[in-house]
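To the wet lab folks,

You asked to see what we're planning to order before we commit. Fair enough. Below is the target structure as tokens, and below that is the sequence we designed to fit it. If anything looks off to you, flag it before the synthesis order goes out.
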């Protein structure tokens, strides 16, 4: 998640257009098979999500301790995610931009089939701050989105809607990558996105369970999932407008998402219903060097990853 406005770096974007991303359509996609049969979302193995986090940690360690915009660790992270998606049968496209004098990249992956006039998109920012590896912020969201995309492929899922997944660059500089993506869609292609689901920090070590309240249908989908497993939720306010859903929302796309908390302090009431430690930040390693693989709550990561997959299946059927 990016810094509040007072700590935000100024970012100037010089773009390099990519046809797929500028149009929002995908040429040569496989025709959608007969669909309409509702399918249950699979359980997303938290061990698989954690394996992706271990790879992102190794990448950071090998590249100066971070995966920040314009640094070698970011590009290596993108290459890792892209290789997994390519092997699973996705059509992947890299979108290039320049911000703060450094080259940045978005990665977009389309699952063949589904109605491209109804696109359900899920995304997360892949960059860290320069201070650390960014495993909760936002390896957690990136890894869960990746594993959900791979679960789609493993299941051979044929949804009614077209599925698209995105990993954004330079979020920490002010949502540069996601804003570029949205700004380079035509108004018609923005209108084809039926919903954008955002996942930024979903494995916080002292977690809360926060649901975005931007779109009622998406909000209800997530709340229904958590109610079904007996976990209370609260409306997300700490990161409102501070992550990659904001450019989509500003363009009129219905948005939603999940969040487990950053540097706000967990109250006694929140600790009573969720566990953890009252009087301590949800993530005391937010934007710090200690945001490593040790900075993850497995239960929160597991629940949120499963909620992500539930929403993708429920909203695309």
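Sequence we intend to order:
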């Amino acid at each position: 998640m990016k810094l509040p406005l007072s700590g935000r770096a100024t970012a100037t974007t010089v773009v390099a257009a990519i046809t797929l991303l500028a149009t929002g359509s995908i040429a040569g996609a496989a025709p959608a098979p007969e669909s309409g049969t509702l399918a249950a979302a699979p359980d997303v193995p938290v061990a698989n999500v954690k394996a992706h986090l271990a790879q992102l940690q190794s990448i950071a360690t090998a590249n100066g301790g971070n995966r920040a915009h314009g640094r070698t660790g970011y590009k290596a992270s993108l290459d890792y995610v892209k290789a997994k998606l390519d092997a699973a049968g996705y059509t992947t496209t890299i979108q290039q931009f320049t911000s703060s004098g450094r080259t940045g990249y978005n990665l977009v992956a389309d699952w063949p089939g589904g109605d491209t006039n109804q696109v359900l998109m899920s995304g997360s920012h892949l960059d860290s701050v320069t201070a650390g590896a960014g495993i909760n912020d936002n390896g957690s969201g990136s890894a869960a989105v990746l594993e959900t995309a791979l679960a789609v492929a493993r299941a051979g899922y044929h949804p009614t809607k077209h599925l698209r997944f995105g990993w954004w660059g330079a979020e920490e500089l002010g949502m540069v990558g996601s804003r570029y993506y949205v700004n380079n869609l035509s108004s018609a292609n923005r209108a084809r996105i039926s919903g954008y689901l955002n996942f930024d920090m979903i494995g916080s070590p002292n977690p809360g369970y926060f649901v975005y309240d931007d779109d009622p249908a998406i909000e209800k989908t997530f709340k229904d999932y958590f109610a079904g497993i007996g976990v209370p939720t609260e409306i997300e306010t700490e990161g409102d407008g501070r992550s990659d859903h904001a450019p989509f929302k500003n363009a009129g796309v219905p948005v939603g998402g999940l969040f487990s908390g950053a540097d706000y302090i967990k109250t006694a009431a929140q600790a009573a219903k969720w566990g953890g430690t009252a009087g301590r930040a949800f993530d005391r390693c937010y934007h710090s060097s200690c945001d490593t693989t040790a900075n993850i709550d497995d239960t929160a990561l597991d629940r949120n990853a499963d909620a992500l997959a539930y929403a993708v299946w429920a909203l695309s059927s």
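Structural context that might help your review: DSSP finds ten helices and nine strands in the chain. The radius of gyration is 18 Å.

Thanks,
Computational group
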